């Protein structure tokens, strides 16, 4: 969903012979449509994505970061993250880039999300089949179950300004508890937004990021309710690595405004494309996952089940989303309530016995596994901003921020009601 608008600058020390239509920047060749040659604070030249600036060896978006004394600082000078994540491996960036996604979906991205145009070869196999014949090699174990009273212990609360320019105020855990934005009842966890007060400076909401990260494995989210299809809202359940986009991003649940279908999207740096037949039931919206080449849109898959998202999901009684990261694919399944595989919540699920996934992205020569590093899990609900706000007038009419500020009761259905979040790995 939200993307880290921070890049390690492309720096070359040897002269390059540039081709037709290319320019040279400090020895590197580039095309002006995607990159530009900018002056670093040190006075040297650096190659950065278009509209980015340079700060002591790092490229950044000035709408998200600023350069202070040669170091890159998130948001306003006093803003810090609460993620507790380690500093990005970029070294010279001087910024904690843990699970603090800082970029946006542009209007272009929104258009791609709202259409069903297939831009990549896609197989929409509807017949349930298994994906492997080896049950022993496919089964997962070593389950971590986050639910009830232990759920929020696994997360940090993000309280800085919304990196996607949303009309929102993310609050800390104590405030969220006192204001009724989060609560626990038995094993169930509630996370919502303020839906009682007119809020002229942004609606109060919660955004949390897991304290631990994961690589390969299985993530199972069982929930009775997700944020409804409400004009102005932009909820998401997703994973992301540090130093975006070099460790990748996987959007598992995401949509805006009054949307009725879920979109699964991957975001990477250059060198991750999808070709050939994909064994999945969803519809592809793009084949290039590179955020620069796609203007941050990435490569998406629309889940075709009518009850996969928002109000329709809730009316059907909820369901489960599963994301599997393995050495050869990233897959996402949606199971409506009452249609769970018998082993889904057993502690030892075997996805090889499940139906064809809703989304499947092969990992290999065209998209090496190096594009996806350790990632943290994030839940959030924001409003307006770079995606929901960009299409609000066409989808809902009027002005997004005015509507969100003055209609608190419209967001009474903007909440997550989670039964459990499970992380599993394989034993070898």
UniProtKB/TrEMBL annotation:
MF GO annotations: carbohydrate binding; hydrolase activity, hydrolyzing O-glycosyl compounds
Signal sequence segment: 1-17
Cited Pfam families: Carb_bind, GH16_XgeA
Keywords, in A-Z order: Glycosidase, Hydrolase, Signal
Record's compositionally biased regions (Low complexity): 101-134
GO BP terms: glucan catabolic process
Residue stretches in coiled coil: none
Domain of life: Eukaryota
Location of region: Disordered: 85-134
Boundaries of every GH16 domain copy: 93-396
PROSITE patterns, sorted: GH16_2, PROKAR_LIPOPROTEIN
Family matches, as PANTHER family: GLYCOSIDASE C21B10.07-RELATED (PTHR10963:SF24), GLYCOSYL HYDROLASE-RELATED (PTHR10963)
Family: Belongs to the glycosyl hydrolase 16 family.
Official protein name in the record: Endo-1,3(4)-beta-glucanase
Biological source species: Planoprotostelium fungivorum
């Amino acid at each position: 969903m939200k993307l880290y608008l921070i890049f390690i600058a492309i720096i070359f020390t040897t002269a390059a012979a540039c081709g037709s239509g290319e320019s040279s920047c400090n020895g590197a060749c580039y095309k002006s449509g995607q990159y530009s040659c900018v002056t670093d604070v040190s006075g040297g030249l650096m190659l950065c994505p278009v509209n980015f600036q340079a700060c002591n060896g790092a490229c950044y978006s000035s709408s998200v970061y600023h350069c202070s004394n040669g170091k890159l600082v998130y948001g306003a000078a006093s803003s810090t993250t609460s993620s507790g994540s380690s500093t990005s491996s970029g070294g010279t960036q001087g910024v904690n880039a843990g699970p603090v996604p800082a970029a946006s979906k542009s209007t272009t991205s929104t258009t791609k999300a709202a259409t069903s145009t297939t831009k990549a070869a896609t197989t929409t196999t509807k017949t349930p089949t298994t994906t492997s014949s080896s049950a022993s090699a496919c089964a997962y174990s070593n389950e971590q179950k986050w639910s009830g009273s232990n759920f929020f212990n696994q997360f940090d609360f993000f309280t800085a300004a919304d990196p996607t320019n949303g009309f929102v105020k993310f609050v800390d855990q104590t405030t969220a508890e006192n204001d009724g934005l989060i609560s626990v009842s038995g094993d169930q966890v509630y996370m919502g937004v303020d839906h009682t007060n007119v809020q002229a400076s942004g609606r109060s909401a919660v955004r949390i990021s897991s304290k631990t990260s994961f690589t390969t494995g299985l993530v199972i989210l069982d929930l009775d309710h997700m944020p409804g299809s409400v004009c102005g809202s932009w909820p998401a359940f997703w994973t992301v690595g540090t130093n975006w986009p070099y460790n990748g991003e996987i959007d598992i649940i995401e949509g805006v405004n009054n949307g009725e279908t879920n979109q699964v999207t991957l975001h990477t740096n250059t060198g991750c494309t999808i070709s050939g037949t994909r064994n999945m039931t969803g519809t592809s919206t793009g084949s290039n996952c590179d955020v620069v080449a796609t203007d941050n849109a990435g490569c998406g898959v629309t889940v075709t089940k009518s009850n996969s998202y928002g109000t329709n999901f809730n009316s059907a009684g909820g369901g489960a989303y599963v994301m599997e990261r393995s050495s050869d694919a990233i897959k996402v399944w949606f199971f409506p309530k009452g249609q769970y595989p018998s082993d889904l919540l057993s502690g030892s699920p075997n996805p090889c016995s499940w139906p064809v996934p809703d989304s499947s992205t092969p990992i290999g020569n065209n998209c090496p596994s190096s594009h996806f590093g350790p990632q943290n899990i994030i839940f959030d609900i924001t409003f307006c901003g770079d995606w929901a706000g960009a299409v609000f007038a066409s989808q809902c009419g009027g002005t997004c921020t005015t509507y969100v500020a003055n209609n608190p009761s419209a967001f009474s259905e903007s909440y997550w009601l989670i039964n459990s979040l499970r992380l599993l790995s394989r034993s070898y």
